[in-house]
Write a structure and sequence with these properties.
single chain, 418 residues, UDP-n-acetylglucosamine1-carboxyvinyl-transferase, Chain, four-stranded mixed β-sheet, 14 helices, 31% helix, binds ligand EPZ
Length: 418
C-alpha cells in the first residue's frame, strides 16, 4: 500500500501542463479498435484506467502497443473474441464501451454488467436501450449482458438524462450500422466531440457532436487514423482549484478555457482572479473569498467531477455555500474525511452545506473515489501540518504524475510505501 505524505500550508506557485483527457482516452482506445488498420493516439494519459482498457482490448484480440511517451498504436485486426473478461471489466465501468465495439464489429457482445460504484448506483440501462434501438437482441444473464445483431440498423434514439456513456456507446455501435442513426438529447461533453472527431477521421460520418442531436450515417468500414487527445478539463480544473486555494499564482498550460467555463465563472464569482490565454489558464488567490451556490449539471453546466474539489475551496469562503449534486447519488463520501480536517460541511439529501472560512489542519485521511480523493489532496495541501492520504489507487485512476506535478508547484509531497 502507498500513501501520500503532505506537509501542508505552503503557498504554491508555478505552472504544470494538463495531461490528455482520461474520459476521452478510454472510448478513443475502443474506437480505434473498430478498424482493422492501425491508428495512432497521441497525448494518452498514463493512468490505471487507461492500463485496464488496454488490457481488455488485448484480451479481445485487438493489438495495443506503446510508441513513445503518450503515444499508443491500436488496431482491431485481430478482434475475434466477443466476451470481455469479467476480472478486468469489473475494475472499471468505462469498460462497458467495448459492448458498442463488439456489437459493431462482430455482431455479438458478452460483457459483464458493471456493479455499483463508489459514487453511486450507475446502471447501464440507457446503453442497453441504445443497442436495442439499433436492433440488437439483448438479454441479461448471470451478471452478463448478451447482445446480438448480425448487422445493426440505424434508428432514432432519445438518450435519457443526456448520458455521456450511453451517447458514446451508441455512437460506437452506430458508426458501422446500416443506415442512419439519430441520437436525441445526446450528451454535449467535449469528450463526446473528441470521440466523434476521431471516428470521422477514421471515415465515419457523424454530424452534430457537441449539440443535443447527433446524426450518424453508417459506413461499411473504418480505416486507421491519427488523433491527439484533448486536454483533461477535470484534471486542469482540479489544479486550478488547488491554485485558487493555496496560490500564489498557478498556471495550467494546455487548459482549454472554453471547456472550463462553468468552473472559471464560479471561481470569478467567489473572487479568484482568472486569466486566460489561448494556451493556458492562470489563477491567483485572493482573500476573502465569497460564498457560492452551485448545482452540478451535464455539460456545459458545472461538472459533477469537480464538485468535491470545489467543496474544499468553498470551506475557505466567508459565509455559507451550497453544492447540489444532481448527477450521481453517492458523491459526498469524502465529506466525513474533510470534516476530520476541520471543515464545517453538512450534507442534507443531495446538497452539501459548507460554512467558512474554516481552519483546516492536517490529518490521516482515506480516499474512497477518484475526485473525492483529489479533493482530500487539495485540502491536505492547504491544511496546516502533516497529512497522510491513503486510498491512492482511486486517485491513480485519473491523475498521472500527481506527486511530480504537485512538487513542480512547490508542494512538499512524498509518496511512500507502507
Ligand atoms: C461519465 O460517466 C464520466 N466517466 C464520469 O467521470 C462523469 O462523472 C460522468 O460522465 C458525468 O459527466 C467517463 O467518461 C468514463 P453518465 P458516465 O452516463 O458516462 C445515470 C470521473 O470522475 N445513468 O452521463 O457513466 C447515471 O447513474 C468520472 O472521471 C443511468 O441511470 O455518466 C448518472 O446518474 C466518474 N443509466 C447519469 O445517468 C445508464 O445507463 C449520468 O451518467 C447510464 C447513466
Amino acid at each position: 500500500m502507498e500513501k501520500l505524505v503532505i506537509e501542508g500550508g505552503r503557498a504554491l506557485n508555478g505552472s504544470i501542463v494538463a495531461s490528455g483527457a482520461k474520459n476521452s482516452a478510454l472510448p478513443l482506445l475502443v474506437a480505434a479498435a473498430l478498424a482493422e488498420e492501425e491508428s495512432l493516439l497521441e497525448n494518452v494519459p498514463h493512468d490505471t484506467d487507461v492500463d485496464v482498457m488496454c488490457a481488455i482490448l488485448k484480451a479481445l484480440g485487438a493489438s495495443v502497443r506503446a510508441d513513445g511517451p503518450g503515444r499508443l498504436r491500436v488496431s482491431g485486426a485481430g478482434l475475434t473474441q466477443a466476451q470481455a473478461p469479467y476480472e478486468l471489466v469489473r475494475r472499471m465501468r468505462a469498460s462497458f464501451y467495448v459492448a458498442g465495439l463488439l456489437l459493431g464489429r462482430l455482431g455479438r457482445a458478452v460483457v459483464a454488467l458493471p456493479g455499483g460504484c463508489s459514487i453511486g448506483s450507475r446502471p447501464v440501462d440507457y446503453h442497453i436501450k441504445g443497442f436495442e434501438a439499433l436492433g440488437a437482441k439483448v438479454s441479461l444473464e448471470h451478471g452478463f449482458m448478451k447482445a446480438e445483431a448480425p448487422r445493426l440498423t440505424g434508428s432514432k434514439y432519445y438518450v435519457s438524462r443526456a448520458s455521456v456513456g450511453a451517447t458514446i456507446n451508441t455512437m460506437l455501435a452506430a458508426v458501422l450500422a446500416k443506415g442512419t442513426t439519430i441520437l436525441e438529447n445526446a450528451a454535449r461533453e467535449p469528450e463526446v466531440v473528441d470521440v466523434a472527431n476521431f471516428l470521422n477521421t477514421m471515415g465515419a460520418r457523424i454530424k452534430g457532436a457537441g449539440m443535443d442531436v447527433i446524426r450518424i450515417e453508417g459506413v461499411k468500414k473504418l480505416h486507421g487514423a491519427e488523433h491527439e487527445i484533448i486536454p483533461d478539463r477535470i484534471e486542469a480544473g482540479s489544479y486550478l482549484i488547488l491554485g485558487a486555494m493555496t496560490g500564489g499564482e498557478v498556471t495550467v498550460v494546455n487548459a482549454m478555457g472554453e471547456h472550463l467555463r462553468a468552473l472559471l465563472s464560479s471561481l470569478e464569482a467567489i473572487g479568484v482572479a482568472v486569466e486566460e490565454t489561448t494556451t493556458a489558464v492562470r489563477v491567483k488567490k485572493k482573500e476573502p473569498l465569497a460564498p457560492l451556490n452551485v448545482v452540478t449539471q451535464p455539460y456545459p453546466g458545472f461538472p459533477t467531477d469537480l464538485q468535491a474539489p470545489l467543496a474544499v475551496l468553498l470551506t475557505q469562503a466567508d459565509g455559507v455555500s451550497t453544492l447540489r449534486e444532481t448527477i450521481f447519488d453517492g458523491r459526498f463520501k469524502y465529506v466525513d474525511e474533510l470534516r476530520r480536517m476541520g471543515a464545517d460541511v453538512k450534507v442534507e439529501r443531495d446538497t452539501a452545506i459548507i460554512t467558512g472560512p474554516a481552519k483546516l489542519t492536517g490529518a490521516p485521511v482515506e480516499a474512497t473515489d477518484l475526485r473525492g480523493g483529489m479533493a482530500l489532496v487539495i485540502a491536505a495541501l492547504a491544511a496546516e501540518g502533516r497529512s497522510e492520504v491513503s486510498g491512492l489507487e482511486h486517485i491513480d485512476r485519473g491523475y498521472e504524475h500527481l506527486s511530480a506535478k504537485l512538487q513542480a508547484l512547490g508542494a512538499k509531497v512524498e509518496r511512500i510505501r507502507v
